[in-house]
Amino acid sequence: MVFTFAAFCYMLALLLTAALIFFAIWHIIAFDELKTDYKNPMDQCNTLNPLVLPEYLIHAFFCVMFLCAAEWLTLGLNMPLLAYHIWRYMSRPMMSGPGLYDPTTIMNADILAYCQKEGWCKLAFYLLAFFYYLYGMIYVLVSS
Amino acid sequence: MQVPSGYGLHHQNYIAPSGHYSQGPGKMTSLPLDSQCGDYYSGLYTVPTQNVVSPSTANQQPGAQQMYSRVPPAPHIVGSTLGSFQCAASSASHLHTSASQPYSSFVNHYNSPAVYSANSSVASQGFPSTCGHYAMSTVSNAAYPSVSYPSVPAGDPYGQMFTSQNAPPVRPAKDNSFSGQNTAISHPSSLPPPPSQQQHQQQSLAEYNTPSWSSAPGLPTQDSLKRNNTGSLAIANNNSANTVADCLSCPVIQNVHPPKSSPAVSTVLSGASSTRMPPAANHPVEPAASVTQPSELLQQKGIDSSSTTSSASPVPNSYDALEGGSYPDMLSSAASSPAPEPTPDPDPGPAPASTPVAPQPSKMAKPFGYGYPILQPGYQNATAPLNSGVQPSSTVYSGFQQYPQQYPGMNQLSSSLGGLSLQSSPQPESLRPINLTQERNILPVTPVLAPVPNLNLELKKLNCSPDSFRCTLTNIPQTQALLNKAKLPLGLLLHPFRDLTQLPVITSNTIVRCRSCRTYINPFVSFIDQRRWKCNLCYRVNDVPEEFMYNPLTRSYGEPHKRPEVQNSTVEFIASSDYMLRPPQPAVYLFVLDVSHNAVEAGYLTVLSQSLLENLDKLPGDSRTRIGFMTFDSTIHFYNLQEGLSQPQMLIVSDVDDVFLPTPDSLLVNLYESKELIKDLLNALPNMFTNTRETHSALGPALQAAFKLMSPTGGRVSVFQTQLPSLGAGLLQSREDPNQRSSTKVVQHLGPATDFYKKLALDCSGQQTAVDLFLLSSQYSDLASLACMSKYSAGCIYYYPSFHCAHNPSQAEKLQKDLKRYLTRKIGFEAVMRIRCTKGLSMHTFHGNFFVRSTDLLSLANINPDAGFAVQLSIEESLTDTSLVCFQTALLYTSSKGERRIRVHTLCLPVVSSLADVYAGVDVQAAICLLANMAVDRSVSSSLSDARDALVNAVVDSLSAYGSTISNLQHSALIAPSSLKLFPLYVLALLKQKAFRTGTSTRLDDRVYAMCQIKSQPLVHLMKMIHPNLYRIDRLTDEGAVHVNDRVVPQPPLQKLSAEKLTREGAFLMDCGSAFYIWIGKGCDNNFIEDVLGCPNFASIPQKMTYLPELDTLSSERARSFITWLRDGRPLSPILHVVKDESPAKTEFFQHLIEDRTEAAFSYYEFLLHVQQQICK
User: Fold this and answer.
1) I want to staple B385 with a disulfide (CB 3.0 to 4.6 A). Which of A71, B528, B868, B881 is the partner?
2) Which residues form the Sec23/Sec24 helical domain (chain B) (predicted)?
3) Cα B830 to Cα B710: distance, rounded to the nearest angstrom
């Protein structure tokens, strides 16, 4: 049982994924608040927008780590999400600051529904990933 | 019959007030009112009912006189009599009558008291003045005070109409529209100066009198009541009595603007035109709208008669009213019904004729004494969900009763449309299948009217005017699946702040709202018993507050259903401090003017200063009104106008990167205290910068400064810009590639280049500041980016391409006219609008200029009467357990007088379960406008070609979906239901509209402006933009003409938009909404050219002619009165272009002939074939 770089990656990913899970939950709550009129879309966008890039960067970061650790399968599992993030950020509405959400369109039912769905999907993905990383970590630790 | 009775009643009411007016009995006779009234009426009436006119006027006159003569004690003279008022009142009364029986019933009621009073006190005097007719009536009164004799006089004229009624294939629903028209017409003309207000008061008085009987003029109670009506006088009685008074007055009352300072006043006049007419039984047509549409008028004859019918049974009604059952109409509608015909009625004849073919037994059954008849039958179904959806439909459909008469031939089709649950009536006209490819003249010769929801008569009458509130489907599908099957867009089109001539304004301590969903109480709620009402949106059962229980009409408790909130689907509440986050703001206006070289060269400053000087006193506002000016080029100039200075002081801030306010206090000054300084500044402004060499424009910093200036109060910022902003924050680059203007592929840059303006707009919106943009540029100015400042702050956008004061006089004239309207129109500040709908439906997307603050709440820093909105809806839960759905918009705003007000519109629509019914209820114009809005969104978020495809697909999908519902008709043909027959034409028109066309050279700014227009224009104006109206005007005749303000307005038939209709011998007028084109054919009759254009022959017509000379010839007069009539009531005053057949300007004209083929686009027929091909695929 040797503490390899791969094992380190998995541990790191485990921690970061836990953080991402909180991000996802935060998103879901935020959009739910929007939908139920608890929050002003402007405030909500102002709180959500700064979180978008950190989330994407964290995910991109451990993707790079897995690349370095040559964990191809794990990397492959994460590639779709990485691609999605890149696409999503490229096609964001015209805005000067960082972020994705435009307070003038966020209340549009289509966009709101989309964002909510996105939040749930990501939550599911991160949860599965969390357990996968746990498994991966143990597997790496045990096998090496 | 109803109408007449109603009228009669009203008259009485009025009479009572007149008494007030005159105060002294002796005066009464001398009062000019009588004559005026007479004129007034005649004017009104003549218009709609051409034939009938004379009799009606005669009758009515007497009625009017009576009213006046009858003066009950009018202790209180309400303050100033507004001249306009009377008109309004009278018009209102008309409306009333037609619409709501309940009112008429009131009247009757009250009449009796009035009569008494008259007899006792002044009666004798009053009568002499009245006509011979009246003698009779008076007698009758005396004898049968309670009897509604007043109805009689009115009845005569109507009776005549009646007979004619059936002939025209008019839908019954429109009956009332007629009355609406009258109002509208009357409105513009401020005919009778007599103060209508007083009349209102009188009404109320009269009513009040009733109880008291003696009604001596000085009674304190009466006074208080009256004061409500008068408003200004108001003695702020907030007690229920006041509210009651309001109620009473409501129907009749219109609110005029007279600047009344008293907040407590119950009746307020909103100057605007009337949308909501309670009266319109079926569905009141908006006056203004109706005016524009000549055809309507014709049709309305028939309608009127029908409306009359409704009022037929005055006596029982009044009785009913007493009992609490307020819907006399029902009785009347069932002609044969036991409802005792008013014996006193001189014209019983018309009544029977008018009675709807299919009596509704259920209604009839209702006994007079019946305690709680309040619920409309349709409604009852709704409230009792247990009746499966099927049953309700039958009731609902009763609306169609009259169809059989009109479309007798339709029976054979009904079998194929089994889904239609029309009871004993053949399928409605709207479902008649039409083979589009074979129907050569698809466009009707008369303007298209909004379809009337298929509700029962009472609900129809109560329903909101289609001018304020329209739904794309007047039959709401039960489930989203059904909606998807129909492939039609579901949404609402709103014009919430329209100018209304008549609007009940309610002051009361408690505004009754549902406790769970906060819906305002409205005509479509149901009263479970006297103490409880059931919300029609969320179905919660609420208590009726004590204050609301009191019915001032009868001075008794237990008649909450008689209150104006429950009798009118459009009402305005004066809100209490609960509805304020801060004290109501004053009206604040800031003008931000571009004075760079480009702007000075264009010369708009002269026009602006002139307009401002002329309208300075008419700016809406109270004594707190504030105004300020800023100019900018590469620096920003502020003007210190503080009172006490000898001349305006200019303060220059040159640091555009970090703007600050040189002095915080004196830049926005009180309009009245500093008026001289303001005038000095305006006089100096046009010449101040004549020698400027500065070409830069620091728009962004100027806006930031404006925001800082406005943020403490909020208000309106008007920005005049003439070029691309080139300095400081928000600077823009030219993005347009002129070579791509006619590209058929990709149109780029429809979205903003920066979010600076959007953010600024959101900040402004948060501080209750709206930014209105006037873009007067000769070159590309990136409207797509600049428009954001108005879009999200609820401002408006005006665009004058290639504006130049001297070189382009037509644009200068347009600017001047637009400014006049812009400066003087009503304005509401710090507004929010909430749209609620029945549980199960939900708002999907909003279109318009605003910021969406939550799922159903729009934040509108300013609201103006020319703003329209659209809402897409989705059906989230099945609506199977209800037969009606309701939509309610509530617009909370601060009026320019510093009052917090809530304007509430409620629309009620039936729910249907079959596809055929859904198609039967399509409002094609509303659908097109909603589609246009959606297409704008699509072209910005995706691409223009996507949007165009989506438009074509909308036609293809809906027609193929319809095709699959009719099994036994040939599938090869392109079949559309009659309700959708114009759909392909309108979509083609949209595809050829500037906003969406490709292949034709279109400047980017023009395109973007067209898109902005689509998003923010109300439906009436938008439809003209999409599909202009074409008339032939070289042979105008008085045949079918309408009378407006003593003017005869010819009503030429609509021509289809095709060159095939243009003959070289003719002259044609095209009404595009924002422009009029008169095309003169080469071979046009010289007489016409000479008489109308003032030129000897075709060759001598100047190339740029923008007006018609005032010649004293018949044809000139007709042409001018027609054009003036078309122009009335447009937010953007159209500019007239006279286009010769050979002039280069004719392309402008021909591009609007949308049925013709162009190099880049289909002709109408080709488009149909294309659609057919797509369907068959």
Assistant:
1) B881
2) 923-1023
3) 13
Instruction: Identify the closest residue of chain B to A39 by CA–CA distance.
Output: B854
Residue B984's H or E segment, with its range, is helix B983-991
Alpha helices in B717-831 (DSSP H): 756-766, 783-786, 788-791, 809-824
Block mean pLDDT (10 aa), chain B, length 1177: 37 36 36 37 35 37 38 38 37 37 38 36 36 36 35 35 36 37 36 41 38 36 38 35 35 36 35 36 36 35 32 30 32 34 36 36 35 37 35 36 37 37 54 81 85 86 90 93 93 92 85 91 88 90 84 68 86 90 92 93 93 93 93 93 88 91 88 92 92 91 94 94 91 85 79 92 93 92 93 93 88 90 93 93 92 90 93 92 92 93 94 90 94 94 91 92 74 82 93 89 90 93 91 82 80 87 87 87 85 85 82 86 82 81 82 86 90 86
What sign does the dihedral B1040-B1041-B1044-B1049 (CA atoms) show? positive
From B792, B845, B857, residue closest to A108, measured CB to CB: B845
pLDDT for the residue numbered B1094:
85
Please report how many Cα atoms fall inside a 13 Å half-sphere around the Cα of residue A32, on the Cβ side.
8
What does the pLDDT read at residue B635?
93
> Chain B residue with minimal CA distance to A35?
B855
Q: Are B846 and B1015 in contact (CB under 8 A)?
A: no
pTM: 0.70
Tokens of B934: 């959606």
Whether the CA torsion B699, B700, B703, B704 is positive or negative: it is: negative
Structure confidence at residue A53 (pLDDT): 94
Q: Using CA atoms, how far apart are residues B356 and B352, in angstroms rounded to an integer?
A: 9
What letter represents residue B462's amino acid? L
C-alpha atoms less than 13 angstroms from C-alpha of B873 in its C-beta half-sphere: 29
In a 13 Å sphere around the CA of B874, the CA atoms on its Cβ side amount to 12
Contact present, A116 and A35 (Cβ < 8 Å) = yes
pLDDT per position as a tens digit, A81-110: 999 999 999 988 888 889 999 998 888 888
> How far A41 CA lies from chain B's nearest CA (Å)?
6
* Digit-coded pLDDT (tens) for B574-607: 998 888 888 999 999 999 999 999 999 999 999 9
d(CA B227, CA B244): 12
Residue B572 · residue B504 · CB < 8 Å: yes
Q: Are B260 and B80 in contact (CB under 8 A)?
A: no
Residue found by looking up tokens 């089709």 in the block: B413
The pLDDT of residue B227: 37
* Amino acid occupying residue B590: L
Which residue among A95, A96, A110 places its CB closest to the CB of B845?
A110
Tokens of B143: 């004898």
Yes or no: say if B1049 and B1144 are a contact pair by the CB < 8 Å rule.
Answer: no
Q: Which has the closest alpha carbon to B879: B327, B440, B402, B385?
A: B385
Helices (H), B384-504: 390-397, 403-406, 411-414, 457-462, 480-486
Instruction: Find where tokens 């519902």 sit.
Output: B965
Instruction: Report chain A residues touching chain B, CB-CB < 8 A.
Output: 34-37, 40-42, 94-96, 103-104, 107-110
C-alpha–C-alpha distance, residues B1149 and B1131, integer Å = 22
Q: Which of B751, B766, B855 sits opposite A107 (nearest CB)?
A: B855
Residue type, B615: N
pLDDT of residue B432: 80
Residues B966/B1006, Cβ–Cβ less than 8 Å:
no
Q: How far is CA B815 from the centre of its chain?
A: 24
Contact A104 B851 (CB under 8 A): yes
Cα separation of B943 and B747, whole Å? 7
Tell me the three-class secondary structure of B517-564, residue by residue: CCCECCCCCEEEECCEEECCCCCCEEECCHHHHEECCCCEECCHHHCH
